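Subject: for your reference before the review

Hello V.,

The reviewers asked for a structural picture of the protein, and I figured it would be easier to keep everything in one thread rather than splitting it across files. Below is the amino acid sequence we used in the manuscript, unchanged from the supplementary table.
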Amino acid sequence: MNWRKWLRILHRDFGYFIVGIVLIYAVSGIVLNHRTDFNPNFQIIVSEVSIALPAGPTFSEEEVKKAVEAIGEQVRYKKSYINKEGLLKVFIENGEVVVDPATGKGSMEYLKKRPLLYQMNYLHKASTISAWKWVSDSMAVLLIFVTVSGIFLLKGKNGFMRRGIWFLVAGLVTPVVFMIFFI
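And here is what came back from the structure prediction:
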């Protein structure tokens, strides 16, 4: 069996293998490119709340905790204080609650993980899971192989030396232009 046939077999099989990972990297890459336009990992939820605070100008930490955690299951009390405007500001896990102590009315703002996008972006950055770093490195090696082997698959007028070389040059020049003029 000649080398071109083996190259075609390996190119095809590795190509099939990497489809899922490439799709995840591509989607999360697009989303991460637009992280200045919106938060790709978290959705900011804002809602109006009403809490029952005891009467009085001051409240104990335990009274505030009990009143705020009555809002719902997702609310985990951390700390609170009265700000300059006289509003009760309560820090909760992944957010905050700001309430007028006189009326008990206010707003809650918290972060909620975007389903699937959060996990895809986490994997894309390969930041903390050491086993995933090896998967990511292996993926990079397979991408290099599939890319380079693709150069040698076609012969003739649509082959690398006739048509492919121009696309390869364009693909190399594009990032170089951005590196020179925009970075």
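For the response letter, the relevant points are probably these. The radius of gyration is 27 Å. The longest helix spans residues 3-33.

Happy to draft the paragraph if you're swamped.

O.
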